[in-house]
Amino acid sequence: MSDTLSASSAASDALRQELFPIREVARLTGINPVTLRAWERRYGLIQPTRTESGHRLYSQADIDEVRSILGWIERGVAVSKVGKILARSNSLKVTAEPVQRPTASSEWAEWQEQVRRAVHAFDERRLEQVYGQVFSSYPMVVVFQHVLMPVWQELLLRQDAFGQTSEWLLLDSVLRARTLQRQQLLTHQHQQSTVLLAAVPGQCHELELLVAALLMASSDIAVQVLGLGQPLEELSLVCEKRAPQAMVLFSNHPPGADTAKRLRKLGLTLDCPLMIAGDASDLLQDALVGTELVCLGSDGRLMQRRLQQYLAGHLDT
To answer: Could you read off the pLDDT of 71-85 as tens digits, one per residue?
Structure first.
């Protein structure tokens, strides 16, 4: 009887603290329990809490971290190096993101689950409804960074089973259409400065680029997106013709050994400042110290704030 009460109490505690057993984390992320344990023991990537009997319990933050780890591995980063990348990225984001109330992550998880259910049912009408509801509940940066894009990334990485590619395509098409719509509305407002945003070829999807543009833009800065496949060697021509206040390159892939050198060389060909955004920006921070290139980071609030500060002459590069 006491064992039953103890198990019930542990389950209640887990529910109150919104903790998940390893089997549920495996279901949500597609990473099997053996791999999750290895990431913890061998590399120290995740630190779940433990019950008195030694069972692992994972928070929503742990689950988000698992997805981040998987994302870097899918981009070709060795698992042994992911910990250092995440530590660097998190240290840059912590000053940009205000502390959320304790229930925020659970609310975001509920919205994520609604998105998953609509996509799994191929119910585009319901997906549109959820999209509208979540935007009426949170600011744009929260909607994209904590609700929509985590599900999009999750589906992108889990296309091995029948139907999963179609699910991702549905979500991607709906979000691209809505993001383009928001982007067009912003460009019709009266901004003082125009910034161009281009993807490093092959290093992000269109939706990631469009979302980055929305998160960087503000009432006094318009961010205009160049089409995917924009040749980097032709950016000097584009900047000469369009005369932007700055040129931002976006990449979500780890930089190569010669990336910093290539970016410095590219910057010399432009008539405007060159900036770097996305996950690559976090990783290039040290390599670009002392240069005129500006790293905006990957967090939406941080990107917008640094862009505003630089254009106002208040950001020390």
So the answer is: 777 766 777 777 777
**Any idea how long the chain is?**
317
Distance of CA 301 to the CA centre of its chain: 12
Claim to verify: residue 114 and residue 162 sit in the same structural domain:
yes
- Residue 135 CA to residue 139 CA, distance in Å, equals 7
Structural domain includes residue 215: yes
Q: Note whether 290 and 243 are same-domain residues.
A: yes
Is this model's pTM higher than 0.70 or not? yes
Inter-axis angle of helices 164-187 and 104-120, to 10 degrees? 120
Collapsing DSSP states into helix, strand and coil, what is residue 299? coil
Same structural domain, 295 and 202: yes
Give the domain extent around 130: 104-182
Per-residue pLDDT tens digits of the chain, which is 317 residues long: 444 444 444 444 444 457 889 988 888 888 888 888 888 888 888 888 888 888 889 888 888 888 888 877 776 677 777 777 776 666 545 444 554 444 567 788 899 999 999 999 999 999 999 999 999 888 899 999 989 999 999 898 888 789 999 999 999 999 999 999 888 877 666 566 789 999 999 899 999 999 999 999 988 889 999 999 999 999 999 999 999 999 999 998 888 888 999 999 999 999 999 999 998 888 888 888 888 899 998 888 889 999 998 888 866 55
Q: How far apart are CA 260 and CA 200, in angstroms?
A: 13
Nearest residue to 122 (alpha-carbon basis) of 83, 174, 185: 174
Nearest to 197 by CA among 85, 186, 189: 186
Q: Which residues contact 47 (CB under 8 A, 6 or more apart)?
A: 40, 62
User: What one-character-per-residue DSSP string does 107-118 give?
Assistant: HHHHHHHHHHHH
Q: Return d(Cα 141, Cα 104) in angstroms, integer.
A: 14
Q: Is 196 helix (H, G, I), strand (E, B) or coil?
A: strand
Q: Phi and psi (nearest 5°) for 227?
A: -65, 150
